[in-house]
Amino acid sequence: MGRLAILVLLVLALAGCATGPRQAGVPTRWRPSPNFDERRPTLVVIHHTSERTAEEALRVLTDRAREVSAHYLVARDGTVFQLVDEGKRAWHAGVSRWGGSPDVNSRSIGIELDNDGDEPFPERQVAALLALLGDLKARYGIPAANFVGHADVAPGRKVDPSRYFPWHTLAVYGFGLWCEPPVPDAPAGFDTLLGLQALGYDVADPAAAIRAFDLHYGEEDVAPEMTPHARAMLACLVGRSRDTSD
Fold first, then answer.
1. Helix axes 206-216, 228-245, angle to 10 degrees
2. Are 95 and 157 in contact (CB under 8 A)?
3. Looking at 137, 172, 207, which one is the last position of a domain?
4. Is the pTM for the entire model greater than 0.85?
5. In what side-by-side order are the strands of the sheet with 80-82?
């Protein structure tokens, strides 16, 4: 067989493997339009893997039978692995809700951090995460308020990233909201649940939403009712979120 014939066969084989456009299951006529774009994420959800090593996490995240994935995994040493195209819908958030939307996976980028949930996050890992978040924010215009944790979008079901995660550091760099002390008291009549809902939390289970908020904002006493300090922080954050959305 000549070289040209081999080349033709190779091209045909590759064409057969290529993924074509998804089309209707009934006869149609394909008339492509140039007026479209890729899925545009508006939210970033941060997780920890609960595994002992990045290799263990990669095996889980790439195992077809497990049906779980993320767009990125950031290892303890700062290595960043990409697992899913950003234009595709990774399976990382599960049953979740944020800002009234029940399909978090369809609007978000999922980032897993190589961490067992009971250890601090190394500086190299945090530095790599900050660089990745900066890139995502620049390319997609994701607002500061839309960098959240798995526990935030799935209160009562998830607790990651853990209490060791440096949310304050991220907020300093523009990824997430924070209010520096001294934080003024919440105004009289401030409604805690409406405040949580204004930030994006699902308040169907109020106690779970409060615990998720406390985990994110460093409340030591994670209780079913908010402390005065947590209420003050919440009221301040609601104001901050309005300022950043203007």
1. 80
2. yes
3. 172
4. yes
5. 80-82, 72-74, 108-113, 43-48, 147-149
User: Mind telling me the catalytic residues?
Assistant: 112
Q: Structure tokens of 116?
A: 């067992």
Check if the beta carbon of residue 175 is closer than 8 Å to that of residue 147: yes
| Encoded tokens for 205 | 């289970």
133-161 pLDDT per residue, tens = 999 999 999 999 999 999 999 999 999 99
3-state secondary structure of 46: strand
- Residue-level length of the chain: 246
Residue 113 belongs to a domain = yes
Question: Residue 161: is the preceding peptide bond cis (ω within 30°)?
Answer: yes
Report the interhelical angle of 206-216 vs 192-199 (nearest 10°): 60
- CA dist., res. 188 & res. 109, Å (int): 38
* DSSP 8-state class, residue 98: B
Structural contact between residues 129 and 138, judged by C-beta atoms closer than 8 angstroms? no
Residue with token string 């922080």: 233
148 CB contacts (<8 Å, ≥6 apart)?
43, 44, 45, 46, 98, 176, 200, 216
Give the range of the structural domain holding residue 235, as residue numbers without chain letter.
Answer: 192-245
Tell whether 79 is covered by a domain: yes
pLDDT tens digits, 175-220: 999 999 999 999 999 999 999 999 999 999 999 999 999 999 987 6
Give the Cα separation of 139 and 196 in Å (integer).
28
